[in-house]
Amino acid sequence: MKRITFSIALAALSGVAFAQKAGSSDLIKAEREFYNVTSVPMPEGEVLEVSGLEMLPDGKLAVATRRGEIWMAASPSSTAPKWTRFAAGLHEPLGISFKDGCLWATQRPEVTRMTDTDGDGKADVFETVAAPWGINGDYHEYAFGARSPKDGSIWNALCLTGSGGSSSLFRGWVMRVFPDGKSETVATGVRSPGGIGFGPDGEAFYTDNQGPWNGSSSLKHLKVGSFQGNPTGFNSFEAAEKRGIALGAVKKKPVTPKSGSRIDTERANVEEFVPPAVVLPHGILGHSPTGFCYDASGKFGPFKNQLFIGEQTFSNVQRVFMEKVNGVYQGAVFHFLSGFGSGNIATIMTPDGVLYTGGSDRGWGAKGGKPFALERAEWNGKVPFEIHEMRAKPDGFELTFTQPADAKTAADPASYSVSAWTYIYQSSYGSPEVDKMEPKILSATVAADGKSVVLKLDKLTKGHIHAITAAGLKSAEGKGLLHNVGYYTLNEIPK
Questions:
Q1: End-to-end CA distance of the chain
Q2: Angle at Cα 428 formed by Cα 427 and Cα 429, nearest 5°?
Q3: Which label site among 76, 211, 448, 480 has the fewest CB atoms less than 10 Å from its CB?
Q4: Is residue 348 part of a domain?
Q5: Element at 20 (helix H, strand E)
Q6: Cα dihedral 335→422→3→18 (10° resolution)
Q7: According to the model, what pLDDT value does residue 20 have?
Q8: 1 falls within a domain
Q9: What is the CATH number of the domain that holds 456?
Q10: Final residue in a domain of this structure, among 363, 379, 395
Q11: Average pLDDT, integer, range 420-441
């Protein structure tokens, strides 16, 4: 996350007009027609700057805080949850998970296992499972953790030192810690993660924030052994060798990419480079993407197995559809829900399709206005008219809808507009939108059931974000889209 000390209302960034519209009271009201967002009552007098969430088998919601505590909420969906403090004195845990009767936490310096041995609702045994990375007290050396559904290992995404340096071991890396205490590297090239987790297919992803070597924030696929784009942490290769530390999945130092280039160009030069799966356009959808989850139940509306990503600065949640093209993850992001109380950091989806999210604004501004919050979002059963999926084609895109579209507006190319751009891949902070294009829509072919349209374009540009706006599209009932823009990251063009 980027540290800011000014009001969001004063930010002069590209896309701010749309961002204000996305957070407008009219749009929030429209979103609430389909999703109810309510505050979870917190323990009176306590400060719960939410930094991690986990559902326990007994139905309790575990809530970690940036101030080093873990609280348990019994009956969290009720108007009066019963709160008990499970643990205190931790070092800013950013990720908790339950396994084998114990609660696991990723703290800044280590992965910790906590056990309540006497059943009084409080942890009385704290064990360091592993502490394989370094820490020096810098404010930015955060560590985000998530448990793998495959082998139970804890994956940890480690922020750089001071946002742009690496003065502690393995800063700018991802490491996994196994239940037996063994650990190994997974990937290098990380800058400033805001959350880490797993998709419905068991693959790992993390969100990274705009900054050096990150023209915009994005969702990135954590392929084992990969380079994620920021070479700042390469000094840990030499440090690990001197100390006799086995690296694990990251076998060798990648070639250093060329600053001032483009990601698509450097992919050809750096063998281990995995491009961002979905770019989250900076200033348009937010500034600081954080934790994410997905709905496996199908009870959170028509978006089963799609990702929902928290946004700290703009206090909202985005929706992501992904696909694999030529073996590479890519896809589209859509705005989803606005109007949360504080800066969302952690998210979790319950088995019955309820989204919990919470966070704080300490150290960064947050549009929500509250210093901390914990909220739940529930689908009320009404289906919004939305772009459900956006898939790449060899010569355009296929858009599917949650409801049948009006055949006349769906088949009219004038109902849509397309713009495309990329970012400078550079060592300096962020990037403007560059290499801008406006592809022409040659045709719009609507399916017989009205549930999809194929847009044929005169040009697709590999490595560009393609923004498709469907402002003129109507549903069969004459309604416009709830959110009419999708941003597709085109890493690969289908064959």
A1: 37
A2: 120
A3: 448
A4: yes
A5: helix 16-22
A6: -40
A7: 36
A8: no
A9: 2.60.40.1220
A10: 379
A11: 98
DSSP 37: E
Which of these three, 350, 379, 408, is where a domain ends?
Answer: 379
E strands, 132-216, are 143-147, 154-158, 173-177, 183-188, 193-198, 204-208
Three-state secondary structure string covering 46-80: CCCCEEEEEECCCCCEEEEECCCCEEEEECCCCCC
CA dihedral 318, 391, 155, 184 (to 10 degrees): -150
Query: Which pLDDT belongs to residue 4?
Result: 38
State the pTM of this model.
0.94
Total structural domains within the chain:
2
Helix %, strand %, coil % of the chain (to 5)? 10, 40, 50
Q: Which two tokens stand for residue 442?
A: 């040659």
> What pLDDT shows up at residue 11?
34
Decide if 65 is inside a domain: yes
Indicate if 311 and 418 belong to the same structural domain.
no
Tell me the per-residue pLDDT of 322-370, one tens digit each, with 9 for 90 and over: 999 999 999 999 999 999 999 999 999 999 999 999 999 998 889 999 9
**CA angle at 348 for the pair 346 and 350, rounded to the nearest 5°:** 160
What tokens appear for 176 in the block?
Answer: 């996994």
Question: CB under 8 Å to 470, separation ≥6 — which residues?
Answer: 387, 399, 415, 416, 481, 484, 485
How far apart are the C-alpha atoms of 80 and 86, rounded to whole Å? 18
SS3 per residue for 333-377 = EEEEECCCCCCEEEEEECCCCEEEEEEECCCCCCCCCCCEEEEEE
Whether the Cβ atoms of residue 104 and residue 153 lie closer than 8 Å to each other:
no
**Are residues 407 and 369 both part of a single domain?**
no
Higher-pLDDT residue of 241, 417: 417
Please count the other Cβ atoms lying within 10 Å of the Cβ belonging to residue 150.
10
Domain that holds residue 207: 8-379
Q: With 80 as the cut, is the pLDDT of residue 397 above it?
A: yes
CB 361 within 8 A of CB 370: yes
Q: 156 forms bridges with which residues in the sheet?
A: 145, 175
The CA-CA-CA angle for residues 464, 290, 471, to 5°, reads: 50
Token digits for 429? 């902070």
42 and 59 assigned to the same domain: yes
Residue pair 489/330 in contact by the 8 Å Cβ criterion: yes
Calculate mean pLDDT across residues 69-79. 97
Q: Which of 17-31, 168-182, 263-277, 288-302 has the lowest mean pLDDT?
A: 17-31
